[in-house]
Amino acid sequence: MKINLRLLYLYLFSAVGLVIIVFGSIQLVDLGLKTFVFKEADVYEIYPAPKGEGEVISEQDQKDRQKRDLSRQRQRELAGAMSAIAIGLPLYLYHWNTIQKENKKKKIEG
Question: In terms of Cα–Cα distance, which of 89, 79, 75, 76 is closest to 22?
């Protein structure tokens, strides 16, 4: 059996694109569930700031900071998931369409 390196390359990169899409989709679903269904999944207990030198942070300021940090974290997760899908989808589609075209060409020739 003769191994066609070009076809192997196409299948490999098509699979890589598909895996990237799957991981990006998993991140997107995870983020959606945390945001809309399991709203307390990312909320952590706030402990009072240690009293020492410097400014003492009130509990309300700590809660506000936690909300901002959570919002930033979710934005980073969304950006990561969307960029994975944006990279994986064209990678997969290009290579898979090329495979399909070659298979059609072989059927017509053979």
Answer: 89
HEC sequence for 32-101 = HHHHHHCCCCCCCCCCCCCCCCCCCCCHHHHHHHHHHHHHHHHHHHHHHHHHHHHHHHHHHHHHHHHHHH
Alpha carbons 83 and 20: distance in angstroms, whole number? 10
CA distances for 69 relative to 24, 43, 58, angstroms: 22, 11, 16
What single-letter DSSP state applies at residue 1?
-
Dump pLDDT digits (tens) for 38-73: 888 777 776 666 666 666 778 888 889 888 999 999
- The 10 Å CB-count burial string (b at 16+, else e) for 69-99 is eeeeeeeebeeebeebbeebeebbeebbebb
* pTM of the entire predicted model: 0.80
